[in-house]
Amino acid sequence: MEYIKSKLSDDLARKIIGSQEKAIEYLLRLNIIKPISSLKFKTISRGKNKGKKVLDLSTKELWKIIVDSWNYEESKKIIRDIFKETNKYKNGKEADNAMNVLIKEWKSLKLGNIAWPFSQGAFDDFVQRINSEKENGFVKDKKVKVAAVKYRRIKEINTVRNDFIETLIFEKNKNILPTLNHRRGVDFFINGISFDQKVAKSPTNEFKRHFKNEWRKIAIQKPKLVAEYLYKYQDEGRFGADPRLLVVYIDEDVSIEKIRETIEKTDLDNPIEINFTYKHKVQGEKNYKVPCFVILLYN
Prior knowledge:
Layout: H1 10-17, H2 20-29, H3 34-37, E1 41-43, E2 53-55, H4 59-68, H5 72-83, H6 87-93, H7 95-108, H8 123-131, H9 137-172, E3 176-183, E4 186-190, E5 193-200, H10 205-211, H11 215-221, H12 223-232, E6 244-249, H13 256-265, E7 272-280, E8 284-297
Parallel strand pairs: 5-6, 6-8
Antiparallel strand pairs: 1-2, 3-4, 4-5, 7-8
Helix pairs in contact: 2-4, 2-5, 6-9, 7-9, 8-9, 9-13
């Protein structure tokens, strides 16, 4: 668990701010901090940025100044302002229009219900299944083409929805400090604690098998249980017992309006505590305890 209210490490500075360009932008806006007044600038003498003034600093010096001048409240305000200028934030603000266009295109192509034709990473299994059917090759080709188009378009729809969700989460809580350049493991900090946002297409197949026809009702009634299953049955190659904000689709075709309404009602100040046991291949069973937020999306 990474905590940044009291101090900042060099590694966390890079995770939050990301690039040298964003680091310079951040420092220039932080001109009330004393170390900034001692910075030296140089003018670029050639190329497309000729005449532009930049900080005359090594990369190491640049990040050291950010760490040494870190002030959580002031820094949070500046980083939030910079985030509002990113394409991710702007795309999230325009999600209503983008989603309308994507849904209209889906309908015009007569692709049916908005649903995954096959799960991520299972294209080979899908093609094998199509090849085993007793139809001619041209019919099989058409099925694979339609499935590929549906898969690409759902990925695009989900990107728009996820940007929208991240924007809503950011705006919901002023204590959220976002990262300006996404790196695996940290999407934002809430009250100084790092959280990784994970989007799940369902509460896991194990959840559905265990609760059978009642799985949807139980998931809605017990979001904490959904979180436990997602931690417990995650792939070991990507295992993490880190604080997470889980966005879980109970229904696939959740509208932008419903997503907005759901996040407005979500408590993003007080995480729930998740206790789970994970069976590692080498280490065996281990118990974990993590703070977590859960957002369930359903119609």
